[in-house]
Amino acid sequence: MTILVTGGAGFIGGNFVLDWISGQQETLVNLDALTYAGNLETLRSLEGNPQHIFIKGDIGDRELLGALLDTHRPRAVINFAAESHVDRSIHGPGDFIQTNVVGTFNLLESVRGYWQSLPDTEKAAFRFLHVSTDEVYGTLATDAPAFTETHAYEPNSPYSASKAASDHLVRAWHHTYGLPVLTTNCSNNYGPYHFPEKLIPLVILNALAGKPLPIYGDGQQIRDWLFVKDHCSAIRRVLEAGTPGETYNVGGWNEKANLDVVKTICALLDEMKPRQDGKPYTEQITFVTDRPGHDRRYAIDARKLERELGWKPAETFESGIRKTVAWYLENSEWTDNVTSGAYRSWLEKHYG
Ligand code: NAD
Ligand code: DAU
């Protein structure tokens, strides 16, 4: 038995691949274009492991996809591959349309051709799981109930609009062609191997480097945070027992304002790696210009996944963020490797 994962050298895909290989015998084919966000350093422990087959390539390359599907005959495809950073989508939306919309379309078409050629029993058992985001639902007022799976799609950034478009394609490939698809819409992840353009790893690394900790606007925007290993366990559960054509919200029940998240990280660093001058890391907090179109609040209602498939997160925010800060302190080699020249020029372009 084999599964095909796309984007498995990125943050969530990489954690998924590592957990999958440590948890079962099944072969995993990992297709990743290795953009700036994809890093084989994350998968270094799998070097020489025959259970992991890495292929560098694009989800939009139908010839490659056709060959991979015919050769490896996976029982499932899990699509993590995407451009994932909201700020980058504001600076340059083109790559987001290309990968998240056109790429997903090409992937769906390749998978449909393969799936239609399968014998009936394999065809019935096959699954295409699309990993999506809570950002497709738009923003919430402070007192509004959390997003359920039936909330209207109201994406506000080029990133979330491109993910919303991909979700619609996945839905249509089920309703029109019968492809057995599953979609997960998850809240903000954090944890090991998180590329340091995103808030939590950026703040940890900037704090340790003595740099400013940039807070957009007033810092009162709210996100629901989920430890990445919990997202991976939710995806495994949906793959195993989800109903084709259904969507499942995944969240951590951890709504936090950005400023509080940053202060929590500062307090953990004060405890685990105090500044040499004895001052608190909060002194480095700097308020900067807000993100254009910045969504004020996300909150996920994950009760469907709990009720129907029995999934719950294992970590609280307090336990997960402690593990995350400790991981970054212990893995400076990984961060040194991923913070290349390209990363430094992004910081220069975005923060000045
Ligand atoms: P990431 O940016 O860390 O990783 C994306 C991976 O996809 C990289 O390895 C990259 O090389 C690869 N990739 C990009 N374009 C590709 C292409 N055209 N063909 C093949 N590979 C390509 O992203 P992430 O944070 O790990 O997110 C993974 C998925 O989960 C995305 O679909 C994202 O929308 C979704 N998601 C992310 C979060 C989050 O908090 N990070 C939350 C909910 C959903
Ligand atoms: O909600 C799920 C989404 O979470 C995923 O779909 C995206 O792929 C993922 O990147 C993430 O999007 P966000 O925009 O919420 O994540 P980011 O880490 O970029 O920002 C988190 C919050 O912190 C957001 O309100 C913006 C703010 N922020 C971010 C950065 C990078 C700052 O205040 N300062 C910063 O420097």
CATH topology of the domain at 2-190 and 227-252 and 299-314: Rossmann fold
Mean pLDDT: 97
What hetero molecules are in the model?
Answer: nicotinamide-adenine-dinucleotide, 2'deoxy-thymidine-5'-diphospho-alpha-D-glucose
**Strand-residue proportion:** 15-25%
Spans of at least 5 consecutive residues whose pLDDT stays below 50 are: none
Q: Compute the CA-based radius of gyration.
A: 20 Å
The coarse overall form would be: globular
Blueprint of the fold:
Elements: E1 2-6, H1 11-23, E2 27-32, E3 52-56, H2 62-72, E4 76-79, H3 86-91, H4 94-116, H5 120-125, E5 127-133, H6 158-177, E6 181-186, E7 188-190, H7 199-208, E8 213-216, E9 222-227, H8 228-241, E10 247-250, E11 255-257, H9 258-272, E12 285-288, H10 303-309, H11 317-330, H12 332-338, H13 341-351
Parallel strand pairs: 1-2, 1-4, 2-3, 4-5, 5-6, 6-10, 7-9, 8-12
Antiparallel strand pairs: 9-11
Bound molecules: nicotinamide-adenine-dinucleotide and 2'deoxy-thymidine-5'-diphospho-alpha-D-glucose.
Structure write-up:
Belongs to the NAD(P)-dependent epimerase/dehydratase family. dTDP-glucose dehydratase subfamily. It is an enzyme of class 4 (lyase). Residues 4-324 form the NAD(P)-binding domain. It comes from Paludibacterium paludis. Keywords: Lyase, NAD. The mean pLDDT is 97. The chain is 45% helix and 16% strand. α2 packs parallel to α4 (94-116) and α7 (199-208) packs parallel to α9 (258-272). The protein contains 13 helices and 12 strands. The protein has helices spanning 11-23, 62-72, 86-91, 94-116, 120-125, 158-177, 199-208, 228-241, 258-272, 303-309, 317-330, 332-338, 341-351; strands spanning 2-6, 27-32, 52-56, 76-79, 127-133, 181-186, 188-190, 213-216, 222-227, 247-250, 255-257, 285-288. It starts with a strand and ends with a helix. By secondary structure, the protein is of the alpha/beta class. It has a domain at 2-190 and 227-252 and 299-314: Rossmann fold, CATH 3.40.50.720. The strands form 3 sheets. Strands 3-2-1-4-5-6-10 form a 7-stranded parallel beta sheet, with helices on both faces. The structure holds nicotinamide-adenine-dinucleotide and 2'deoxy-thymidine-5'-diphospho-alpha-D-glucose. Residues 6-7, 9-13, 32-35, 37-38, 58-60, 80-84, 99, 103, 131, 133, 163, 186, 188-189, 195 line the site of nicotinamide-adenine-dinucleotide.
